[in-house]
Design brief:
The protein is an alpha/beta fold. It has a single domain, classed as Rossmann fold. It has 10 helices and 7 strands. Strands 1, 2, 5, 6 and 7 form a 5-stranded parallel sheet that branches. A two-stranded antiparallel sheet has the order 3-4. The chain is globular and about 75 Å long.
Length: 293
């Protein structure tokens, strides 16, 4: 057999260029991935690298989304058993940590514009599976993104929750109705439970002009799916449900409620952050030791 052919020697200039490329290539890939969002399947790649898998339905409370104090064989966490939330089901991808937390934070800025819809597709798959198990007709379901205030939208230049909803729509075909509007309030991040409750109180309202759109898209009874990135204290979701009820909507805890005035509300979030003792209590009620949302 002929001996292997030796590789040609590199000139000093070629060696210098090779060293530059070895330094720049990872930086350029990171720029494309994290700032320009042009690498195909960015969330899928991150999830694969981190061995991330969405939580199964039995991994968390189907009412509040918490994985704390689950009562095996009963389904609900201890807090929801005694202080139910005002929505009928919560669906999440996972706890708000690790690669999911990083992706959610990036979704809030223009540099992560591709991630929002990719995470939304993941949420759409989770929602579709729950709808199928509950035998709910997708034709009775509407996605309602939790809104961003106008000043915050102007500051960020994008609505990341709407991006999540659009990803869900592309995966499921479910319609989006931007039913709610939101007054500007201080940032919630890092605040106490009491401050969160004050911040969101009466901050949301139903857009009366969108009610006709809602009826045209999906006449009652219907399932409204509130979409948000993170559930922390539950105060934001409670406020959204309050605004819907203030507009005359009524919701039933009974599966498949088929009266003209009633429907259901589900919440779908990418991540859930805290244990029940750190969550919001029903308006006017004191939080017990286990703590409701």
């Amino acid at each position: 057999m002929w001996p292997a052919r030796a590789a040609p020697a590199l000139s000093p200039t070629q060696r210098a260029l090779a060293r530059v490329r070895s330094v720049l290539n990872p930086t350029l890939l990171a720029l494309e991935r994290d700032w320009l969002g042009v690498v195909d399947g960015s969330w899928a790649r991150r999830a694969a690298e981190a061995n991330f898998l969405p939580d199964a339905a039995g991994d968390y409370c189907p009412s509040c989304g918490s994985s704390w104090d689950l009562q095996l064989g009963h389904g609900l966490c201890k807090a929801c058993d005694t202080h139910p939330v005002p929505w009928q089901r919560c669906i999440r991808l996972a706890k708000y940590e690790g690669p999911l937390r990083d992706a959610i934070l990036e979704c809030k800025h223009a540099s992560g514009r591709a991630l929002g819809e990719q995470l939304g597709k993941e949420l759409g798959r989770a929602l579709a599976a729950h709808l199928e198990r509950a035998q709910i007709d997708p034709g009775r379901v509407v996605l309602v993104p939790i809104p961003m205030s106008l000043p915050r939208w102007l500051l960020r230049g994008r609505d990341h929750t709407l991006a999540l909803a659009r990803g869900m729509r592309s995966q499921t075909g479910l319609p989006i109705v931007r039913l709610l509007r939101r007054e500007h309030r201080p940032q919630q991040t890092g605040t106490t439970l009491d401050v969160r409750k004050v911040n969101v109180r009466k901050s949301m309202h139903v857009r009366t002009g969108r009610l006709a759109e809602l009826e045209a898209v999906c006449p009652a009874p219907r399932l409204l799916v509130l979409v948000d990135d993170v559930l922390t204290s539950g105060a934001t979701m409670r406020e959204a449900v309050r605004a819907l009820e203030a507009a005359g909507m009524a919701f039933s805890d009974e599966p498949g409620a088929e009266t003209s005035a009633q429907g259901q509300v589900w919440t779908v979030v990418a991540g859930v952050t805290s244990k029940p003792s750190q969550r919001d209590a029903p308006e006017g009620g004191a939080a017990p030791t286990a703590g409701p949302r």
